[in-house]
Automatic annotation (TrEMBL):
InterPro entries: Cytochrome_b-558 (IPR011138), SQR/QFR_C/D (IPR034804). This is Succinate dehydrogenase. The lineage of its organism: Bacteria, Pseudomonadati, Bacteroidota, Flavobacteriia, Flavobacteriales. Keywords: Membrane, Transmembrane, Transmembrane helix. GO terms for cellular component: membrane.
Length: 220
């Protein structure tokens, strides 16, 4: 890992791999949460499995946590090093023409998403830790849907989630294709496909999460 992150190219490659892992996780996470809209029992069953399966809890969950931390830390490191490498901004460089707003502000959107993750962990992960390990309460496979549902009773929390998912979509719009570009996946034949998939991904994934939040708020 030290060798991979010792150069700019290596850091970009490592960040791209962590991004791809998180892209897959978002699909799985959205699929599970959509069950709360489709079928209450199915959501409870899936959540109970994810919440108590040793493989998920003690292997996949730590890997996910590491990937999230690594991705954000590496993003900040790359941004700092890029800024140091270009201490003087040339007057002839019109950033609005040469790059998109999102590509120039990935650090800002990333910081906001990181703050949202802190809220999300407070809402759900810390609750699970308290339920299972602090209070040591008896497993209840029927508790997951009501717990999710009541989280979206307050309009301010729904608004925060919606704003965060919109920013996530903007972040993904650039990050999806950038991750493929960083690992060298550039080809006249395949790049347009990657860009098209990235565009739809960055729209549908956030919209799915927004739909879930609004559904639980409206159906209180």
């Amino acid at each position: 890992m030290a060798g991979l992150t010792s150069s700019t190219i290596g850091r970009k490659y490592a960040m791209a791999l962590s991004a791809m892992f998180l892209l897959i996780f978002l699909i799985l996470h959205l699929t599970t949460n959509l069950l709360s809209v489709i079928n209450r029992d199915a959501f409870n069953t899936a959540s109970d499995f994810m919440g108590y399966n040793p493989f998920v809890q003690f292997l996949m969950q730590p890997i996910l946590g590491f990937a999230v931390i690594f991705h954000f830390v590496m993003g900040f490191v790359l941004e700092i090093k890029n800024n140091k490498a270009r201490p003087i901004k040339y007057a002839s460089n019109d950033a609005s023409v040469n790059s998109s707003w999102m590509s120039r502000n990935m650090l800002i959107s990333g910081a906001v998403i990181l703050a949202f993750l802190a809220l999300h962990l407070y809402d759900f992960w810390l609750h699970e830790i308290n339920y299972k390990y602090v209070e040591g309460l008896t497993p209840d496979a029927e508790r997951f849907w009501p717990e999710l549902h009541e989280k979206f009773a307050d309009i301010w929390r729904v608004a925060l989630y919606v704003i965060s998912f919109v920013l996530l979509g903007l972040h993904l719009a650039h990050g999806f294709q950038s991750s493929f570009q960083s690992i060298g996946a550039r080809h006249p034949k395949y790049t347009p496909i990657i860009m098209a998939v990235g565009t739809w991904y960055s729209i549908l994934i956030p919209l799915g999460f927004i739909f879930i939040a609004l559904f639980h708020f409206i159906t209180q």
